[in-house]
Amino acid sequence: MTDAAPGKVYLVGSGPGDPDLLTVKAKRLLEEADVVLHDKLPGPEIIGMIPEEKREDVGKRAGGEWTPQEYTNARLVELAEEGNTVVRLKGGDSMVFGRGGEELAHLAENGIPVEIVPGITSAIAGPEAAGIPVTHRDYTSSVSFVTGHEDPTKDESAVDWDALAATGGTLVVLMGVGKLPQYTDALRDAGMDPDTPVALVERATWPDQQVATGTLDTIVSVRDEAGIEPPAITVIGEVAGERERVLEFLEGY
């Protein structure tokens, strides 16, 4: 480390992908940053706003290319120690299944000034873009957010599907398209009605957003027929049926 004071790292959520949904602060920081380390999930238009010479791709994709988290952690510290203003840009909100907490702790342990800039989480914005409210007083007043892609080094899942099935609320599963058969089976085995509405929202708010709907019993075959791929969000619960009621008048995405 040099004798100069370290720079600063901003952990920035980019929202679900539409550049109009960037916060004012996030846009300003992208313009002011010396370096931007970004994931794959910020929309292509947002990434395209960043000059190529100051952006670094440290993204991950299930089954595809990826950057080890240890590299990203070390790179953030290295750049800050050189005196840079660094934006760590993530999809959605960096603290919602985005490893933002890990990076925050690592920066603090290394004495790097850090600021968190919240973003619109895709866990809520994704369903909304498809015309689905995650809560609705006619159906449910609770919602649970679940990751479908846990740390592969863990001995067992931390998700209690039996308990989630018993809540009667909306379930929103992020990064869960690949494991859709496993957790829909688990929810049925836990007693959830096979006719419960389910929606899949792929690339929410992106220009190529795609939505597919079915039931707990049919959604796997619906996924396969529609060709839904990551990144996508799964919405399980009665609210998922609201899309059909409003679709004729739904504008936007």
Automatic annotation (TrEMBL):
Superkingdom field: Archaea
Molecular function GO labels: uroporphyrin-III C-methyltransferase activity
Record key words, sorted: Methyltransferase, Porphyrin biosynthesis, S-adenosyl-L-methionine, Transferase
Keyword Nuclease found: no
Chain ranges of the Tetrapyrrole methylase domain: 8-219
Any GO BP: methylation
InterPro entries (UniProt xref): 4pyrrol_Mease (IPR000878), 4pyrrol_Methylase_sf (IPR035996), 4pyrrole_Mease_sub1 (IPR014777), 4pyrrole_Mease_sub2 (IPR014776), CobA/CysG_C (IPR006366), Siro_Cobalamin_biosynth (IPR050161), Uropor_MeTrfase_CS (IPR003043)
Transferase recorded as keyword: yes
Family matches, as Pfam families: TP_methylase
Family, per entry: Belongs to the precorrin methyltransferase family.
Subunit and interaction comment: Homodimer.
Protein name: uroporphyrinogen-III C-methyltransferase
Species of provenance: Haloarcula marismortui (strain ATCC 43049 / DSM 3752 / JCM 8966 / VKM B-1809) (Halobacterium marismortui)
Gene (UniProt): cysG2
